[in-house]
């Protein structure tokens, strides 16, 4: 799908054209005939958000202008349009958005484009052709839009779709090795550096958490390092992103016990995928910010050599962890990566992880949980970005009392605390492994959906890419102005 900016105002006569009007006081586009206007006015009475009429060979859509300051209603309106265009099998959509603010038009287009995602790899060609999204091109008109606006939106959609693809792939295809290769290819395309540490190097570094989780797998682990450092970067110290890459999680020997609890566990690498997708997005858009990414990856299986409850692991930073539950594996591989991040003396470390059912049970799929010890400024900026792109964040407390249940009678700490506040104790566990300002984002509820939610479609959502891209854009602008 290609998004373009038009220099001339569109008119009726295109294959499909969209106009935005006030339904209560409509100012109809030129060249609408009396029959079309009569049909529109009948449909306005039905309280629709988008009205479709046909005139000659043109399909005309009138979209209801929104009064909200929030951009999300426009994204959802774009999703509504996607359903109508799919019904009509329309290929090229022209949108006259001159009556909107530029950011409203871009949000509408974003919702339309994100709704066009399809994961069709495993359908027969004839079935694939029926399911594929019909729209291949979206042309935008607004006097204050430039081609760079469309290019950046194209890049953002492309990065989000890539992440959705990786999350939706089964582990039989998307194992740790394949994941690292995918990131290498995108680094070559978008010009960011990628280094992959393989099993022998991981062992030599004594990354005890990553190696322990990998012991039950026949596939070797990887530790993928990305760096994007443009010459015009506005920050002197890097931001470090860490992503949980558990390619599939059975729970290990603490096998997941509940009904259907393993069905979507291919999504347990969504944090690592989001970090990779953020690099792809930032580099394609040439955002002037220096960022480093760390993505430990392995699956978690109950093979004969798998690590067991009761084992004591020596982590990369030298701490000893008593394993009480092998299904609390994500924090073990993240812990090694967080320690590794300290060598860069980062301005801020952010991790993304499908870490706990506790976070999902607390706030559902409507937002992700965040917590940490960084300054309030960073939380505020992340929250602002989350509100802007509607990948919202809810900040949980991070009091030291939550460390108490992690104490072990035989080691430095345990890998799980109490059932209550499980999302927070997981974050406090991770805090032991970094000396840097730190924010933990738990995306367990938002990374994978079992049913469509507007433009967030069933399967991998790509959550994190749009959030972090917006966050770093805002940061770079602020730092440029300082």
Summarize the SSE layout with pairings.
Elements: E1 2-6, E2 16-21, H1 34-44, E3 50-55, E4 58-64, H2 72-88, E5 92-96, H3 102-114, H4 125-131, E6 137-141, H5 147-168, H6 176-190, E7 193-197, H7 199-205, H8 208-214, E8 222-228, E9 239-243, E10 245-249, H9 270-285, E11 291-300, E12 312-314, E13 320-322, H10 330-341, E14 348-353, H11 357-363, E15 368-372, H12 376-389, E16 393-395, E17 413-414, H13 422-431, E18 438-442, E19 448-449, E20 459-460, H14 465-481
Parallel strand pairs: 1-6, 2-4, 2-5, 5-6, 9-11, 9-14, 10-11, 13-17, 14-18, 15-16
Antiparallel strand pairs: 3-4, 7-8, 8-11, 12-13, 15-18, 19-20
Task: Explain this structure.
The chain has helices spanning 34-44, 72-88, 102-114, 125-131, 147-168, 176-190, 199-205, 208-214, 270-285, 330-341, 357-363, 376-389, 422-431, 465-481; strands at residues 2-6, 16-21, 50-55, 58-64, 92-96, 137-141, 193-197, 222-228, 239-243, 245-249, 291-300, 312-314, 320-322, 348-353, 368-372, 393-395, 413-414, 438-442, 448-449, 459-460. The two termini are 38 Å apart. Helices cover 36% and strands 20% of the residues. The protein is of the alpha/beta class and 482 residues long. The protein has two domains: 2-145, 3-Layer(aba) Sandwich (Leucine Aminopeptidase, subunit E, domain 1), CATH 3.40.220.10; 155-481, Aminopeptidase (3-Layer(aba) Sandwich), CATH 3.40.630. The mean pLDDT is 96. Strands 7, 8, 9, 10, 11, 14, 15, 16 and 18 form a nine-stranded mixed sheet that branches. A six-stranded mixed sheet has the order 1-6-5-2-4-3, sandwiched between helices. Strands 12-13-17 form a three-stranded mixed sheet. Strand 10, helix 9 and strand 11 (291-300) form a beta-alpha-beta unit. The chain is built from 14 helices and 20 strands. The longest helix has 22 residues, at 147-168.
């Amino acid at each position: 799908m290609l998004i373009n900016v038009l220099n001339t105002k569109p008119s009726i006569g295109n294959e499909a054209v969209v106009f935005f009007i006030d339904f209560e006081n409509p100012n109809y586009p030129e060249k609408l005939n009396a029959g079309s206007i009569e049909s529109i006015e009948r449909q306005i009475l039905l309280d629709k958000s988008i009205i479709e009429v046909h005139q000659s060979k043109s399909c005309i859509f009138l979209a209801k202008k929104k009064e909200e300051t929030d951009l999300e209603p426009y994204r959802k309106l774009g999703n509504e349009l996607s359903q109508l265009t799919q019904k009509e099998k329309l290929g090229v959509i022209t949108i006259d958005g001159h009556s909107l603010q530029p950011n409203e038009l871009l949000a509408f287009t974003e919702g339309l484009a994100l709704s066009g995602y399809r994961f069709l790899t495993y359908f027969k060609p004839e079935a694939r052709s029926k399911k594929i999204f019909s729209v291949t091109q979206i042309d935008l008109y607004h006097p204050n839009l430039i081609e760079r606006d469309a290019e950046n939106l194209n890049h953002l959609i492309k990065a989000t779709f890539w992440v959705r693809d990786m999350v939706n792939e089964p582990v039989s295809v998307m194992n740790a090795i394949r994941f690292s290769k995918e990131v290498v290819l995108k680094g070559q395309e978008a010009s960011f550096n990628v280094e992959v540490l393989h099993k022998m190097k991981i062992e030599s570094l004594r990354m005890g958490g990553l190696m322990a989780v990998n012991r039950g797998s026949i596939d070797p682990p990887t530790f993928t390092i990305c760096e994007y450092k443009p010459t015009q970067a506005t920050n002197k110290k890097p931001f470090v992103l860490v992503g949980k890459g558990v390619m599939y999680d059975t729970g290990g020997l603490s096998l997941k016990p509940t009904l259907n609890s393993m069905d979507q566990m291919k999504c347990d690498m969504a944090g690592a995928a989001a970090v990779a997708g953020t690099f792809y997005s930032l580099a394609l858009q040439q955002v002037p910010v220096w960022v480093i990414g760390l993505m430990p990856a392995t699956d978690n299986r109950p093979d004969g050599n798998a690590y067991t409850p009761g084992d004591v692991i020596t982590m990369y930073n030298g701490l000893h962890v008593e394993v009480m539950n092998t299904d609390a594996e994500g924090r073990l591989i993240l812990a090694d990566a967080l320690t590794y991040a300290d060598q860069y003396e980062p301005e801020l470390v952010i991790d993304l992880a499908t870490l706990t059912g506790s976070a999902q049970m607390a706030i559902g799929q409507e937002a992700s949980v965040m917590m940490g010890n960084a300054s309030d400024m960073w939380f505020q900026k992340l929250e602002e970005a989350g509100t802007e792109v509607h990948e919202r964040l809810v900040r949980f407390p991070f009091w030291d009392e939550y460390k108490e249940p992690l104490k072990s009678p035989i080691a430095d700490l345990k890998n799980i605390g109490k059932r209550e506040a499980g999302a927070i104790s997981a974050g406090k566990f991770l805090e032991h492994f970094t000396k840097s300002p730190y924010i933990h984002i738990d995306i367990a509820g938002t990374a994978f959906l079992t049913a469509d939610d507007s433009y967030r479609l069933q399967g991998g959502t790509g959550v994190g890419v749009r959030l972090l891209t917006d966050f770093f854009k805002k940061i770079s602008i602020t730092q440029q102005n300082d």
